[in-house]
Specification:
It comes from Azospirillum brasilense. By secondary structure, the protein is an alpha+beta fold. It contains four helices and five strands; from the N terminus they run αββαβαββα. α3 links the parallel β3 and β4. It binds 2'-deoxyuridine and zinc ion.
């Protein structure tokens, strides 16, 4: 986990293609996300904003929707890409998306945070969302 490009290359390329399709006329902040599913397939999504601002959807949520529609039910890894080349700020998933990812990922699932130029930093899900509440909390 964490080595640049080689093992994550296809995932990062898919996040870059998705970022190019983003609908972000209000924030002008395009984001792409690409999930590696258990099947080995990649499911991508982009942010989709709305004139009624709170109704906008994050790229990660769009990618999860694509994953579910395709029949995958677990996230092996995800790449999220946003921001500008040369800007070191990390486009980490928002709080709501951390919880959305939690539903389908494991504590050690890698989250590759990228800029247009490529990988910036890799986190484990449990670094971004410690002490999380998940499906296992509902097992009685
Ligand atoms: O990880 C992130 C962070 C932000 N956004 C979107 C939401 C909104 O459309 C825009 C600015 O917040 O970026 C994402 O899709 N994913
Ligand atoms: Zn989000």
């Amino acid at each position: 986990m964490g080595e640049p490009t080689e093992s994550h290359g296809a995932l990062i390329a898919a996040a870059r293609d998705a970022m190019a399709q983003a609908y972000a006329p209000y924030s002008h902040f395009s984001v792409g996300a690409a999930i590696l599913g258990a099947s080995g397939r990649i499911h991508a999504g982009a942010n989709v904003e709305n004139a009624a601002y709170p109704q906008g959807q994050c790229a990660e949520a769009s990618a999860i929707g694509a994953m579910i529609l395709a029949g995958d039910r677990s996230i092996q890894a995800i790449a999220v890409m946003g921001g500008q080349t040369g800007d070191g700020r990390l486009c980490t998933p928002c709080g709501g998306c951390r919880q959305r990812l939690r539903e389908f990922a494991r504590p050690d699932t890698p989250i590759h945070v990228c800029g247009p130029e490529g990988l910036r930093q890799t986190f484990r899900l449990d670094e971004l969302l410690p002490h999380s509440f998940g499906p296992d909390n509902l097992d009685f």
